[in-house]
Design brief:
1 helix
Length: 99
């Protein structure tokens, strides 16, 4: 069990090191500078010259705000019905629920 565990750990560390080496070398290989021929300074070949044209600033007109419309007043709520003790529920004839 111990030999298998150490062997698995060694294989994991070895694959990690190989993967790290491959990824690091591929990053360095992709970012390497291309071989410059003699006489070239390494600047970009095509250059674009752009002229800046000033545009007149548009005048902003501030629209007048309309005052909010007043909402109509609601009628007061009607008074609640005076039900009092006249309200009775359904009578199922069960004595345990009688008071």
């Amino acid at each position: 069990m111990i030999a298998t565990r150490s062997r698995r750990l060694g294989a994991a560390l070895l694959s990690t090191a190989i993967g790290l080496l491959l990824v690091g070398s591929s990053i360095l290989w992709m970012n390497r500078k291309a071989d410059l021929r003699s006489g070239e300074s390494g600047t970009a070949i095509s250059q674009i010259v752009a002229e800046k044209k000033e545009k007149p600033k548009p005048k902003r007109e501030v629209p007048k705000r309309e005052p909010p419309k007043r909402q109509p007043k609601r009628a007061p709520a009607p008074p609640s019905a005076n039900l009092g003790s006249a309200l009775a529920g359904l009578d199922f004839g069960l004595p345990q629920y009688e008071s």
